[in-house]
Amino acid sequence: MISFQPLPRRAIALAAAASIAVLTGCSTLSGPGAPTATTSSTAEDTVISDDLAVLEEENLEAAIAHLVEDVEKEFGATVSLAIVDGKQDFLAGADGSEPAWSTIKVPIAIAALRDGASEELVDAAIKESDNDAALALWNQVEWTEGSAQHSIEDLLNSFDSEVETDEAFGMSTWKVKDQARFASHLGCIPEAEYVYDAMSDIVDWQKWGLSGLDGVHSKGGWGLDEDDGEYTSRQIGVMPVDGGEIGIAVSASWQTWDDDNSYLEDSGYDAVEDISAAALDEIASRLEILIEKALETGELDPVNDCSETSRLAPVATESSADSTEEPAQESGN
């Protein structure tokens, strides 16, 4: 069984969730920070038992739908969840069409390495979620292939994963279903090996949710959409299991505007950050057990045949002289 680092106590999580009702905002003068990884107890046995009961009485999709509904009620969030194995997609909640934030750095890093980018930049962009490093990787693809947006879209499309890229790449739309599809094949892509390994070495202060699961390769992203006041924390992950790998993607979001469509104080933004880490921790701990049980019953069939994995198109050999303008940078991560 994949072991999980201790999670926040549910009592603390509930208190934080209650505070969101009145303190769900941030200052427009400060960019979004990161949720803080915390330690405490795992999800309560009674909650796990309820999840497993739904799985046994119905199926995995019903069980993750139960999980999502439970977490949404407890944490006041809108949750999107996808699991992809070698046969099908399992979806629950919303579609996760909020900004991709730093999860989009995974395909950016893969494309950039193919175009000669340095591994040091990949380490910074993936392990530490450094935005400047990610911008340098994006520019590497832009200068080499003429359009970073088209290159990233082509890369993902070749693995049946749709994306709508944006010049401010963190604002790209990459739904959880499409993220999990790509993640399920990540270990089969030779060009992705370095990125795949980096996703298992995330800095300690970002180890919440999927990143807190031992053995899971993951990348998180978080940020505030200033157009609608929605704060989102999301993750893309690959779970190695006996016989192959499972792709996972999760997103949780909160509204941070008050009734007058204005932001509240920094203390409210801190509350959103804390509750997002607690919510993703809760999802990950419960999801791990459901996946293990579904593997035992045969409902999940891991991706294990890399011969059926799509291969990336050849790397472009000419640079575009007209592609030197840097994309706009978003304030999230």
UniProtKB/TrEMBL annotation:
Chain segments annotated as coiled-coil in the UniProt record: none
Region listing for Disordered, in residue ranges: 298-333
Signal peptide residue numbers: 1-21
Gene3D superfamilies the record matches: DD-peptidase/beta-lactamase superfamily
Entry keyword set: Signal
UniProt entry tagged with the keyword Signal: yes
Biased composition (Acidic residues): 323-333
Name of the protein this chain belongs to: S-adenosylmethionine synthetase
Organism: Corynebacterium stationis
